[in-house]
Fold this sequence. Notes:
The complex is a heterodimer. By secondary structure, chain A is α+β, with helices and mostly antiparallel strands. Chain A is 34% helix and 29% strand. Chain A folds into three domains: 4-69; 73-220, no CATH class; 225-342, no CATH class. In chain A, the strands form two sheets. In chain A, strands 2-3-6-7-1-12-11-10-8-9 form a ten-stranded antiparallel sheet, sandwiched between helices. Chain A has a two-stranded antiparallel ribbon with strand order 4-5. In chain A, a hairpin with a 2-residue loop joins β4 (151-155) and β5. Chain B is an alpha/beta fold. In chain B, the strands form two sheets. Chain B has a six-stranded parallel sheet, with helices on both faces. The chains are: A alpha+beta, B alpha/beta. The A-B interface holds A 194, 219-220, 222-224, 226, 255-259, 284-286, 288-289, 291-292, 294, 296, 318-321 and B 27-28, 31, 33-37, 39-40, 42-45, 47, 72, 78, 80, 114-115, 117-119.
Amino acid sequence: xxxxxEVATLRRLAAGIIRAQGNRFVKELLRAKxxxxxxxxxxxxRNLSDAIESGQLTLIDVEAWLSEVEGWxxxxxxxxxxxxxxxxxxxxxxxxxxxxxxGLGKLWxxxxxxxxxxxxxxxxxxxxxxxxxxxxQETSPAWVPEPEKNYIEQEGLDTYxxxxxxxxxxxxxxxxxxHVSRGLAALFIASPIQGSEHKEAVLEVKRVLALLLxxxxxxxxxxxxxxxxxxxxxxxVPTNKVPTPLVKAQKSRLGSGGSYxxxxxxxxxxxxxxxxxxxxxxxxxxxxxxxxxHGMEGVFVFQNGDGLSRPLRVQLHGxxxxxxxxxxxxxxxxxxxxxxxxxxx
Amino acid sequence: MSAERVSTSASYWDALAxxxxxxxxxxxxxxxxxxxTPAMLPPPERAAIVLLERLAADGLLHRxxxxxxxxxxxxxxxxxxxxxxxxxxxxxxxIHGMNSxxxxxxxxxxxxxxxxxxxxxxxxxxxxxxxxGVLMPWRRGTLREALRRRIATLREEAEARGFSxxxxxxAHSFGTWLLGQLLEQELTRTDPLAFGRIVLTGxxxxxxxxxxxxxxxxxxxxxxxxxxxxxxxxxLAQTGIYDSGPSGRRGFDGAEVINVRADGFGHSExxxxxxxxxxxxxxxxxxxxxxxxxxxxxxxxxxxxxxxxPWPWPLRGNVLGLLLLCGLIAWFALR
Lengths: 345, 335
């Protein structure tokens, strides 16, 4: 018999998860546990709640699933190469020692599934399978309309309509992961770029990282996104050798000095070079001319195949060396995309 | 805006490289990029800012605060370099020399079409292998007129296809002489052919050739004479061609031509497999594209230190003919 607190926790998680995660991932969870799926988010939530009540879905199931999908995709990413000298610093004993020396020992290997802090808070630091992970969580309330609970009341000559919204909680997650064996590290920020919150979140992550590793060395390995963006564009312009590239550039803005030229398709599903006249113009920029350009901005769609089961859109912002992942993704998809980007440096 | 220094020396960059990662900034400078932001340099951003500030302090860049384009954006700091815009190359004519079918024209055309990016058409003018013909004034005149007709046709065709600019020219050896004579003839025409910039190699034009008169008449913009000090062919030109001289070995007199010296280079060495790319990328292409005020920044510029003196007129263009005549007489006398 499960404790009622676990059921309550699971119900709380379920409500938030369904609102925050893409339908695709919720369906996958339900399908994997052989729970009836349904047609929309309301169906998912009802079926998920029933499965929790009946014990068909346990906290362990949800925890494993969340680690793969919660806080992945729909975020901003800053990517770093881990220099060989830094790799030597990144071992479990050394990091564990630094964590304790920094007074963060209680966060070492801490589970995150039950944490719902009101303010952004570092909730876990771990180092497993040569991956250093730091997770910050923040509970964000959201209000979901519940029209069946709406009602109308008459007071004297006036009519009042009461519309019901149910409070659900989902968690905004910022994280830093260093995949030592792959030589890649990434800082993931959920906050929107506008306003001060995003910058503050980045500074907070860097403040903690400085306690654990050589931050200056890490920053010197930051991905040069303007180069990645222009290379991604250039290497995926069709040629008679590769007539259908695996990456479609929906938009690419190439800057040089104080001017720029932008190639863009009006449709989000199309590459700009799919119009022959535009491709003719684009062809005049050959790889040899590329050094004088920098990729100011680009929107690229990685087609399915080569490790991806569906097309995924990535936006690159040269000015602040930032990657924007638009779609809800799982951890595997995110790291596949980041791995692909690393080949365009 | 205060005036910035435009050019930088290699030693300046070498000194800077001891403290900063300057490779990309240096490349962008050499490519005449006019505006810089930290995002154009390798991250981290603060290192890029320190480097740009250093160049601003050294007078190479001017720091400007740019107003945000809209209310949601922030103002941006940019580092600006005051440069004249580059010159546009519209189309090019390549003219070969005597005793050659001009194999270099093919390599040159390939260089130009593969490195420019956009389409720069090259009209390759061939007049066949001419050896003894260059000694005969009437034959030289025929060749000059044929060249004129061909260029006039090309001009019409180019205009019809949207190339409305003047053609630039690269000419070698006897081709330089034909071009020089053609230009002098154009002074007398009512609808003269006019050219952009001219690159001469292995030139057999007189070193005191009057380029100023042609420039003043608007028949051309500028001339680069790339001469080889080891050229053994051009000094012989005077022996067979009356109005010629060794400008391809010692340069042109006066200030009208940019004389670029290639130490020890022979008559066609600039076009050799080993040298063509270097000649093109380091000298000819910059010459064709740099704004006029920066042409004097080209490397290896070396003007003659003494004025050229032609041979006495009875010898000019007649020595080879006389020798041949003497040879023929001797042959008839001895048979």
